[in-house]
Amino acid sequence: MEHLGYHLRFRLESDRLLHCSPDQRRGLVRAVYGTTEEWPVLAWGFTGVHGHLAALVTYAEAGELGRRIEISLQRRHGYGSPFLKIHRKPLEDQHHVFRACLYDMKQREHHGLAADPYLEATSVPDLLGARILGAPLIARAREHLPELRRSHLLRILDIDDLREADEWASPEELAGAAKACFTLRSMEGLAVSVRQARHALVAVAGQDLPAPELADICCCGRRTISRLRSTPAPARHVRALRRQLDLRARVRARDAKDGLEE
């Protein structure tokens, strides 16, 4: 029987957590997307000691895809423990593909963990247009997951809506959203993604922050801020950052209402 694809499960022999901090989660995101560019991945989620991923691949391709992800994760995080043999479950039909993708993104709900409130270690931010690195998933989902609706993703986050925010509580919040949107550990350096994050941040900040403060949170000089202000940032980058800001604000409001914040 020919299957539509495979559902992969990742787990370390030691049952060690796969990510414990925003930096580790962003390293994990880069490991997943840096490895899967040539593979038709539909959705994924890593929470606690588990990792799950759904892709339209053959049995052999699923094994190779999983092996590459494991190698990339070990290089980035050095877990000190090998992975268990990858579990590959066939996706029998379209309904199975859809249910598997939802399952992958709802890992926090299944395992009762709140360590990743913004679901950075899943494909949810990408499919909501709030992160740049996984943007290709949107077109793939439209083609292969016609059942998937925005409302499904909002329900996973347990928020009512997602818009493009035009305000923020502090410069630090704006910088934090930029790092999440562009999958960065820091705003320092000259990498393309860092320069894109700075440009989008400056565009969203507008004239609300003075150049010295912008230079401080962007980890660059004032001359760079002046240059960035003089040219428009890519519209899709600005939209993604505004959505990331709104996502984070709504999640914080949700958790405060539930008594999870001090």
Walk me through what this model shows.
The chain has 262 residues and is of the alpha+beta class. It has helices at 22-36, 59-77, 94-105, 107-111, 124-127, 136-144, 150-157, 171-181, 192-205, 211-218, 222-229, 235-257, and strands spanning 5-10, 41-47, 50-55, 87-91. The chain has twelve helices and four strands. It has a four-stranded antiparallel β-sheet, sandwiched between helices. 52% of the residues lie in helices and 9% in strands. The chain is globular, with a radius of gyration of 19 Å. Helix 8 packs across helix 9 (192-205) and helix 8 crosses helix 12 (235-257). A hairpin with a 2-residue loop joins strand 2 and strand 3 (50-55). The chain folds into two domains: 5-157, Alpha-Beta Plaits, CATH 3.30.70; 171-256, DnaA protein, C-terminal DNA-binding domain (Chromosomal Replication Initiator Protein Dnaa, Chain: A), CATH 1.10.1750.
Gist of the model:
By secondary structure, this protein is of the alpha+beta class. The protein has helices at residues 22-36, 59-77, 94-105, 107-111, 124-127, 136-144, 150-157, 171-181, 192-205, 211-218, 222-229, 235-257; strands at residues 5-10, 41-47, 50-55, 87-91.
CATH architecture of the largest domain: 2-Layer Sandwich
Shape field? globular
The biggest sheet amounts to: 4 strands, antiparallel
Approximate strand percentage: 5-15%
Going across the biggest sheet, name each strand in turn. 2-3-1-4
What is the distance, rounded to the nearest whole angstrom, between the alpha carbons of the first and last residues?
54 Å
Classify the fold: give the CATH topology of the largest domain. Alpha-Beta Plaits
Low-confidence stretches: none
Number of DSSP-assigned strands: 4
Q: Helical element count?
A: 12
> What class, by secondary structure content?
alpha+beta
Question: Which percent bin holds the helix content?
Answer: 40-55%
Q: CATH superfamily of the largest domain, please?
A: Transposase IS200-like
